[in-house]
Design a protein that fits this description.
With 422 residues, this protein is α/β, with parallel strands linked by helices. The protein folds into two domains: 2-81 and 380-419, Urease, subunit C, domain 1 (Roll), CATH 2.30.40.10; 83-372, Metal-dependent hydrolases (TIM Barrel, Alpha-Beta Barrel). Helices cover 36% and strands 21% of the residues. It has 16 helices and 16 strands. α5 (131-147) packs across α6 (163-179) and α8 packs parallel to α9 (240-253). The longest helix is centred in the middle third of the chain and has 19 residues, at 204-222. The model has no long low-confidence stretch (mean pLDDT 96). The structure holds N-(iminomethyl)-L-glutamic acid and fe (iii) ion (FE). N-(iminomethyl)-L-glutamic acid binds next to α4. Its cofactor is Zn(2+); Fe(3+). Belongs to the metallo-dependent hydrolases superfamily. HutI family. One of its GO terms (molecular function) is zinc ion binding. Catalyzes the hydrolytic cleavage of the carbon-nitrogen bond in imidazolone-5-propanoate to yield N-formimidoyl-L-glutamate. It is the third step in the universal histidine degradation pathway. Fe(3+) binds at residues 87, 89, 260, 333.
Length: 422
């Protein structure tokens, strides 16, 4: 059998469980599923072996009859799953630095949204750009994420708010995935805000949701441009009833859902989304502890950068999420308003400092659980059969990745079995 890459003399963060070893030998019982002095073999886009060997690498290779194309002595570095940023809005036009100044002078995010700034201001910038110009503005933000070892990224629409511009955003997101060594999952977020042309009409909010459900979403589905559907369930977004209308339309079209829920107030959007088998419920600072047990089957996506940038005080119910074993993911939420942050490692640091996660929980949140929030079962861990999306780091211990801010870059990254930039 042909092995494309053999990585030798390496320490692994597998996120596999010690009691379910399978072919993974020597995995420890710590929170990283760590496995030291190990070997990883990659064939095509998959990991075919990961773990410790009973004897020498040479004996093992010849006993298996493996033909190794490239061999890499990692010199005791740590190999982690490639990072997964499961919640971004990185395709947008312009920026909102002026709004940042307003907020520093005391205006709230909601005040600014109500007076026509916020999301709607990014909408006008996004609408006016050509497809190529939108791609050119968005690409550097994607590249910042890739530099840190991101191999899967979710990108939402939601700054178009008309069919044409929403489709344009989703096409740009997909094109970014074709131009760069990263898996892009796209999410349609038509229900992000009410665009100005609907705001002036009576019942504008409901008319807009009808338009989302009757025109935009069916067209997005027909063109197969979205992998999931998201909503903003909030006082300045949409009511739970309107979000439910979107969820029902998505279900009819066979698309999984997610939700921006309980970011600024508790409208019970997370429980509603979970009833519709949401892949994830995102933000959830205002989620009631008593509602956590109703979230079985979904993933709680924590977005500490938005909490940080809005100088919020209300934290998500982390202890209850742990108690009920709800998987926690962490993402950047990279967007022009609440989270102008193109660094998943920084979000990992923030989720520890601001929300009290452990460095292991943060790394799992930015790998295995991030993948879960996108419905990806074979991404985010290091085990035979999983995708060969990997990042190699010159560190002494995996806790370093959440501890440092702008300390680390991976020394090598594999995306679907291919060494990046080679
Ligand atoms: O995830 N909450 C809604 N959406 C984004 C913010 C979008 C914006 O302000 O442009 C978020 O925080
Ligand atoms: Fe968001």
């Amino acid at each position: 059998m042909k092995i494309d890459y053999l990585i030798d003399n390496v320490n692994l963060v597998t996120f596999a469980q010690a009691d379910k070893q399978g072919s993974l030998l020597g995995v420890g019982e710590d929170d990283y599923g760590s496995c030291t002095q190990a070997v990883v073999a990659i064939a095509d886009d998959k990991i075919v072996f990961a773990g410790q060997l009973p004897g020498s690498t040479e004996d093992w290779l010849s006993s298996q009859g493996y033909d190794v194309k490239q061999r890499l002595d990692a010199g005791g570095q740590w190999l982690t799953p490639g990072l997964v940023d499961c919640h971004t809005h990185l395709v947008f036009g312009g920026n909102r630095a002026q709004e940042f100044e307003w907020r520093l002078r005391g205006e709230s995010y909601e005040d600014i949204a109500r007076k026509g700034g916020g999301i709607v201001s990014s909408v006008s910038h996004t609408r006016e750009l050509s497809e190529e110009a939108l791609l050119k503005q968005s690409e550097p933000r994607l590249l910042r994420l890739l530099e840190e070892g991101v191999t899967t990224v979710e990108i939402k629409s939601g700054y178009g708010l008309d069919t044409e511009t929403e489709l344009k955003m989703l096409r740009v997101a997909r094109e970014l995935g074709r131009r760069h060594a990263v898996t892009v999952k796209t999410t349609f977020l038509g229900a992000h805000a009410v665009p100005p042309e609907f705001k002036q009409r009576s019942h504008g909010q409901q008319c807009y949701i009808d338009y989302v459900c009757q025109d935009m979403l069916p067209e997005v589905a027909r063109q197969e441009l979205a992998d999931a559907v998201d909503v903003f369930c909030e006082g300045i977004g949409f009511t739970p009833q309107q979000c439910e209308q979107v969820f029902q339309t998505a279900a009819k079209l066979g698309l999984p859902i997610k939700g921006h829920v309980e970011q600024l107030s508790d409208l019970k959007g997370a429980v509603l989304a979970a009833q519709y088998h949401a892949l994830s419920v995102d933000h959830i600072e205002y989620l009631a502890e008593a509602d956590v047990e109703k979230l079985q089957g979904t993933v709680a996506v924590l977005l500490p950068a938005a909490f940080y940038c809005l100088n919020e005080k209300q934290r998500p119910p982390i202890a209850a999420l742990r108690q009920h074993n709800i998987p926690m993911a962490v993402a950047t939420d990279l967007n022009p308003g609440t989270a102008p942050l193109a660094s998943l490692l920084t979000a990992m640091n923030q989720v520890c400092i601001l929300f009290g996660l452990t460095p292991a929980e943060a790394l799992k949140g930015a790998t295995l659980n991030g993948a879960k929030a996108l419905g990806l079962k074979d991404v985010g861990g290091i085990q035979a059969g999983m995708a060969a999306d990997l990042a190699l780091w010159d560190i002494q211990h995996p806790a370093e990745l959440a501890y440092g801010v702008n300390f680390y870059r991976p020394t090598q990254v594999w995306h679907q079995g291919r060494l990046r930039n080679s």
